Fold these 2 entries.
Entry 1:
Amino acid sequence: NVVDRHLQKRYIRTTGASIKRRGTHDLMNCIRTDLQKNPEGTLYAYKFDIRRFYDNARQDFVMWCFRRVFKDKRLLVLLERFVKLLPEGISFGLRSSQGAGNLLLSVFLDHYLKDKYGVRYYYRYCDDGLVLGKTKAELWKIRDAVHGQMGKIDLEIKPNERVFPVEEGIDFLGYVIRPDYVRLRKRIKQKFARKMHEVKSRKRRRELIASFYGMTKHADCNKLFKKLTGKEMRSFKDLNVAYKPEDGKKRFPGVVVSIRELVNLPIVVKDFETGIKTEQGEDRCIVAIEVNGEAKKFFTNSEEMKNILAQVKEMPDGFPFETTIKTETFGKGRTKYVFT
């Protein structure tokens, strides 16, 4: 909605959860990219979690953040109603509360660490945070800064926070992330195996496998997937299947362009199909082409072009071929299009 669009502009790139086109896998890819690009600068990690964030978030601080962004009084009244639905804290289930929580931490934590403290490798998913650094000493200083900022808005960090070497694996976002590979979190594997053992319904088992595949395909888990499901992890490309229309006619990708737009342009002719019914006639020919690397196609009723394409089709390596379409005048000032 409109509020979300305005708020999203203010979030740092490496924050996820309840943000369009961002999520666990997007954030994990950011972490992996940084680990691979700068292994020396990301030797250690500091991981933290905010204690009961939604229950303990101060409503007055949330509204203060909203007032910094929005000036419309009617909108602020509506937002305040959502924020103050509960006597204390903000409701975990409301879509508006997720945006409110993101904004609160964006103002008091994300931008403070990135802009004022100069933290280069910082990631947040909802109330879980991760910082990467070159030394433990550097991360302990950042840890103190995080505690200080959270103290300003009456929030606390859980005591299970830790600073540790990245080579141990970063347990974050449901995965254990290392620079060169990613595994699923142990608890997720165990939970799936237990459910597969308990569930007897074929339909429910298929649903569980599909859900598990959605997790494992983003990690290096081919062997694990086969072990727990008895199935090979394959992508659609591996299946080597394609759409087969009932009429037997080929379908080509790309937008349809007028042949007039292609005159004097170098193109690559990739394939063709005849007997196509259009508003201009029933036995027309559609030609699949590539222009500057972009797939396109055009219709023609030229008997000359159809004949040439049919001859090329009979050649072992006829398609694709490069050509330029030219115009020729014949008869009483009539124009035709030809391959050259």
Entry 2:
Amino acid sequence: MRYHQTIAGTTHEFDGLVELMAKATPRRSGDELAGCAAESDAERAAAAWQLADVPLSRFLDEPLVPYESDEVTRLIVDTHDRAAFAEIAHLTVGGFRDWLLEIAPRADAADRLSRIAPGLTPEMVAAASKIMRNQDLILVAAAARVTSAFRTTIGLPGRIATRLQPNHPTDDPRGIAAATLDGLLMGCGDAVIGINPASDSPRATADLLHMLDDIRQRFEIPMQSCVLSHVTTTVDLIEQGVPVDLVFQSIAGTEGANKGFGVTLDILRDADEAARSLRRGTVGDNVMYLETGQGSALSAGAHLGVGGKPVDQQTLESRAYAVARVLKPLLINTVVGFIGPEYLYDGKQIIRAGLEDHFCGKLLGLPMGVDVCYTNHAEADQDDMDTLLTLLGVAGAAFVIAVPGADDVMLGYQSLSFHDALYVREALHLRPAPEFESWLARLGMTDGDGRVLPVDPGESPLLPLTAGR
């Protein structure tokens, strides 16, 4: 179906939903690289105007990526809940935006949004986000409530959790232990202590998992650990009796991009089942940790949709959340600026993408977090990250990622520091996950209001963490 919109005497035409969605997307370098971005602000405005008039139901009739050749599309279509969709089935994209903004301030907003979530497809949510301002994305996301649990509870109102990321370029246990101590002393680690290993060696992964589990048990920390090896490596280690809490995997929004990561839906489902069978959680049984990022499908050359046209990267990112949704993860985050300026050029594009991803993930029913980050060759700096972190705190992000000094020396990119986590909790009156907060108080690391107290590391009850490593 062709779409057209006339502005100031000029008629803009769009050949199908794939092109209309791409042209309506706020400007970003990845879509320009793919050749699907609007060629002018006028064309972008015309596309957004026309997109607002598209019925939500059309996304059920016109897949952007072919059903026959893509298992993610089949998952989206085959699991769509028409009963949940019924409440909003009569709306257009623009009408849905208005409905969201009307619902968000209400006392029953969280229940209403939760009720319709199974009836939403990623394409519907992505379409709505394209015609929303940043404040709209924040307001609606803040109204949504999505929780998950393993040894801590993620996503509760008034709280923001942190992934403590103690990466080391050689997986040196002493370096990892020192970074872990640094983060724990600043109240970080309630989402997960998660290590990106320097290699995918099963032996190295097993050693790190044993080390983290030893730390957890020695200090009786209500936490979950994860070593971010490939899902198949982790499943093999489960079968060998290695102490695995969470299974990690990067995912994307097309079958081809997921194959580039070495996974299929069946592999992911089997991994989820294997980890759940261990029954290691104490307050819940969500066992998957998933990461996504705008541009991943394009970087894999797996971004083409119906008619061979490139699908915009934000819509493909939202489709990854359909994969995540079926797995009911404990954690999922977009690594928003990690892939580089080829996909998100500057601070403005990174901030916008982070808010879009968070909004779309929460609306689809996910405990959405964000790695607030950038690479050093992007036109961005730590002030941009401060802005995005603050906006995400207001929007009710489930968790963020923190590394020593905001500088990941293994992956070579800039993220948030442990101090940044202290900032956002203090500025916005947010607290850690309740189980972790109780542990901090029990060790005398926080005051009566939950604020982290200054501690001499030499006198900390956690000092033995680094001994003998």
